[in-house]
């Protein structure tokens, strides 16, 4: 799987990460002090900057070619981005997200005006700092952004959110236009700041893969087919007509909160639309346990597109057997050529500030396992 790096050359990279890292204790302490009014935003930002610099140095030392800021400035993998658009505000729902045996905090996002991009978007500011750390180094900075479909699904989560949406957007087509334009403008701003790699994080397709969930909601296949078409339209509209050297990929997640999950099921129910029609270069897919299903849906991935196999779980510390990983990559190569495959962790280590149930040392051991195993496969 060959993609461009910041340093003008083409380097084959067959190992990767999803992007979020466990928050260091110093950062957690500073965030709590800020939330309690004990330190200023400027003081928090200085600590974030320092911890991100340390992280990037360690990512490079670990051999990673694509680096992130660990999402150290975010509370959530998705909501902070939504709150950063004009016309969307932070709010609280009646319930948090329901994961296996756990409910999250109740934060949500709600329309309070016409949706638009603004120059003070937090994702843009975050990338600019990341780029300042790597501009003279032979690595590519990646910005992870929750997908437009994910934003839409949040704006219709709960009766209060739906009522607010209908107030400002009685015409659904106007909503689609404004939301996708806001995203498109964000992507162009990131490009102008030097970004050449944007990953769309997306739980919507993971939820659509959970056939039992939709049965419990009394929603049949026709209903989920309509949702797939809507999600596909949102994502593709936002990423159309972008510069050719801006690489757009997507990570499909089934939920990642405090080492637990939200959805289960293989990719077969969404393979035709997701793999066949979403206009991205690479699919970062979860295959770390039996909930993920088998590799057969990968037959729907078009020739020339890449699949990053999330075979190494980020949810627990136990290290996978390298030979098992090698065998599974070989199995996946029956559907996607080996040159278009890569190995990675199944998700980030801290999709929210809580993080998964690992230590930082265990997190880095997982990354070393990914890099070392990939080098054995694609030596």
UniProtKB/TrEMBL annotation:
Record flagged with keyword Methyltransferase: yes
Keywords: Methyltransferase, Transferase
InterPro entries: Met_Synth_C/arc, UROD/MetE-like_sf
Classification via CDD domains: CIMS_C_terminal_like
GO MF term set: 5-methyltetrahydropteroyltriglutamate-homocysteine S-methyltransferase activity; zinc ion binding
GO terms of biological process kind: methionine biosynthetic process; methylation
NCBIfam families associated with the record: PRK06520.1
Name of this protein: 5-methyltetrahydropteroyltriglutamate--homocysteine S-methyltransferase
Species annotation: Fructobacillus ficulneus
Taxonomy of the source species: Bacteria, Bacillati, Bacillota, Bacilli, Lactobacillales
């Amino acid at each position: 799987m060959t993609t461009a790096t910041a340093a003008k050359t083409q380097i084959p990279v067959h190992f990767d990460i999803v992007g979020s890292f466990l928050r260091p204790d110093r950062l957690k302490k500073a965030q709590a002090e800020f939330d309690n009014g004990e330190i200023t935003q400027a003081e928090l930002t200085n600590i974030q900057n320092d911890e991100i610099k340390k992280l990037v140095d360690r990512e490079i030392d670990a051999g990673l070619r694509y680096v992130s800021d660990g999402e150290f400035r975010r509370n959530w993998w998705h909501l902070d981005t939504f709150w950063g658009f004009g016309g969307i505000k932070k709010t609280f729902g009646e319930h948090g997200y329901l994961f296996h045996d756990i409910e999250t905090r109740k934060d949500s996002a709600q329309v309070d005006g016409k949706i638009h991009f603004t120059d003070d978007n937090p994702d843009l500011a975050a990338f600019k700092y990341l780029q300042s750390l790597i501009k003279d180094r032979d690595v590519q900075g990646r910005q992870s952004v929750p997908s437009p479909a994910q934003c839409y699904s949040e704006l219709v989560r709960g009766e209060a959110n739906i009522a607010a949406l209908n107030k400002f957007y009685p015409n659904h087509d106007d909503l689609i236009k404004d939301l996708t334009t806001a995203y498109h403008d964000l992507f162009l701003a990131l490009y102008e700041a030097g970004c050449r790699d944007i990953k769309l994080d997306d739980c919507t397709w993971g939820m659509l893969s959970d056939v039992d969930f939709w049965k419990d909601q009394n929603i049949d296949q026709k209903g989920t087919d309509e949702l797939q078409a809507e999600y596909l339209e949102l994502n593709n509209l936002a990423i159309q007509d972008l510069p050719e050297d801006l690489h757009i990929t997507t990570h499909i997640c089934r939920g990642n909160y405090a080492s637990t999950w939200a959805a289960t099921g293989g990719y077969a129910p969404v393979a035709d639309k997701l793999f066949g029609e979403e206009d991205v270069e690479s699919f970062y897919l979860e295959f770390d346990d039996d909930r993920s299903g088998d590799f057969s849906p990968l037959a729907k991935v078009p020739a020339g597109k890449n699949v990053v196999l999330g075979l190494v779980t980020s949810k627990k510390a136990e290290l996978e057997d390298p030979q098992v990983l090698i065998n599974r990559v070989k199995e996946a190569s029956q559907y996607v050529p080996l040159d278009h495959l890569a190995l990675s962790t199944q998700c980030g280590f801290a999709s929210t500030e809580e993080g998964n149930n690992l230590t930082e040392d265990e997190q880095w051991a997982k990354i070393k396992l990914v890099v070392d195993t990939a080098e054995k496969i694609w030596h």
